[in-house]
Amino acid sequence: MRPFVSLPILACLLVGCATTSPKPATPVAEPPPAAVTPKTPGADDDLNALAWAQTAIEHNLIYREVYRNAQEKLLRALKDPRWDALAKDDRNGTLKGLKPAVILDIDETVLDNSPYQARLLRSGNEFDEFSWAQWCKEKSAKPLPGALEFTRFAAQHGVTLFYLSNRARDLNAATVANLGSAGFPLNAGDDSFLGLGTLLKGCEQVGSNKGCRRKLIAQHYRVLMQFGDQLGDFVDAVVPTRSGRADAVAPYLDWIGERWFVLPNPTYGSWESVLFGDEWSKPREQRRQEKINALRVE
Questions:
Q1: Terminal Cα-to-Cα distance of the chain (whole angstroms)
Q2: Which 3 state secondary structure label does DSSP give 130?
Q3: DSSP-assigned letter for residue 13
Q4: Rounded to an integer, what distance in angstroms lies between the CA atom of residue 66 and that of residue 68?
Q5: Residue 197, Cβ neighbours under 10 Å: how many?
Q6: What is the distance between the alpha carbons of residues 283 and 263, in angstroms, rounded to a whole number?
Q7: Helix (H/G/I), strand (E/B), else coil: 155
Q8: N or C: which end of the chain has fewer CB within 10 A?
Q9: Cα atoms in the 13 Å half-sphere on the side-chain side of 205
Q10: From CA 153, how far away is CA 68, in angstroms rounded?
């Protein structure tokens, strides 16, 4: 889909006008790089989650259900000039005259990276930036059920698609090539993928938060819908705790299934790291024990 932002303006927005630098962050809402250590036999937190994601028909049905529901809502959203899917902190100014757009996360939202997770599980390793980058450069991730149908439907109805991901921008070419080869609609120019390192003048990037990138899109577009597998794909949680995450989404619960469409991801994410204080430097067994301690028994 051809973008509605001219290339000079876009270049200024994305790179040239930047005055702040993002704080160090990690891609894909994954845990930060950690020392590669063998997993303890019989204590693999990822096995059931990954087996479900790769083999359960229920997983595929949920994805189809979410995207089919979104497709049904899209035409209504297009007709309603007041319909906007950005949280109040991400939207400044009027919606009048703005072109329609949809924001989608990439990993575990439109592309399936479970083979990478399976490689880690079989080898006994944890996530690290190098192996993740190598996987991305393979450009072999497959589309998740329902994602192609929805994005193509949206593009056919004049909606611009933005793939807003915490993949680093140095993976831009590989990511766009993977999306394209998988059949996803892409914008003309270089604005389909907005990864880490995409800057907006006057907006300070905090960690891997996506708020600044959503504000960048908001300057020229009315965002009809957002899709993701992490809370941060929709709104930034100021306080990264369980209660802080609940507070961040509380004002927008009526938007779930209407403007915000959440996909399941039991294999990784910020939901996990809050259970051990987001301290990935802790030994694996300590992290695991703190997750066990967080479970309810009544």
A1: 51
A2: helix
A3: I
A4: 6
A5: 19
A6: 29
A7: helix
A8: C
A9: 24
A10: 10
